[in-house]
Design brief:
364 residues; mainly alpha; two-stranded antiparallel ribbon; 11 helices; elongated; disordered N terminus; disordered C terminus
Amino acid sequence: MNSTLNIHTNPLSNMSVGSDRPSIHEMLKDEPSMSESKSSVFSGTEVKSYKHPTTLPGLRSVGPSSSSAAAAAGNAATTPNNASSHNTPSSAVGTPASVVSPFSPSSQNGSDSAFFKNGASKIDTIKTWSISTYKCTRQLMMERLGKTSRTVDTELEAQIELLRETQRKYLSILRLSRAFSSHFQHCVQTQHALAEAFSDLAQKSPELQEEFMYNSETQRNLTKNGELLLGALNFFVSSVNTLCNKTIEDTLLTIRQYETARIEYDAYKNDLEVARPEVSSPAAEEAQKNFSKHKEQYEKLRADVAVKMQFLDENRVKVMHKQLLLLHNAVAAYFSGNATALEGTLKQFNIKSPNSTSSSWLEQ
């Protein structure tokens, strides 16, 4: 009995004290995963633990999972003969899958080149604009300080100043005409209310019925003629407003462009004089090129301004002749009490009468 007990206990004591084998804790630490254990069962060899490298952010793997790929790679590395004995190709066991990165150079060459091209064009545009603005600002300040000369077209400058003065006076006429139209509209509304009040009192006061009716009819006639005059005034105001704020303003916009081109022309002309064009150099050639470009633009805008001002003057005379005749005839007919002449004036200038109503189909 004693000998048998010693046989069963001696191996454990030998393993724990004097053996070269690792302890059970170290064996558990080196224990492979489930997939690796399964591979080792099929291959019959010991599989060493394999740690897969950390996957980089933005990478996408296609194919088997990383753990199975790592286990298969470990099997192929440790037992090459066993793989041939089972007739299993390496790709089937688990070849590392291909990796596609959206940040790879091949996928960004086109977008990067387009981005840098657009950025370079924008930077060039800003650079050109900055240089031009600096030159024009410097030229304008030097002109105001009297330290440089400026190109002057005496005849054209006088016409431009006359046009601006004309616009100021026409705007004053427009403001007064609007005020007159507004006040007269209130007057017509008051006359209409007064006619209604007289009519109401005529119904409630039999002893003064005739007198109230006379005054009511008079105020109604005044209201009717006042609405005709109000239509003529509104037509006059609308036409003068179009002339001042659209027709003349369009010409003044071209004049402002011409003045800007003149400042640029003088600025680049002074740069050309400083660069000494008689000396052949890249800077002188660039200055000559810029001067020629702005000179051509300046002369073109000057010709455009001259043509527009000529057409504007002819149009202004034609429009104002018609509007002044309308205003005179309408006001004279109203205050003289000539309702027929007032209606004829509105028909002459194709102004729709506010009192004109088409007859109904029953009357026809």
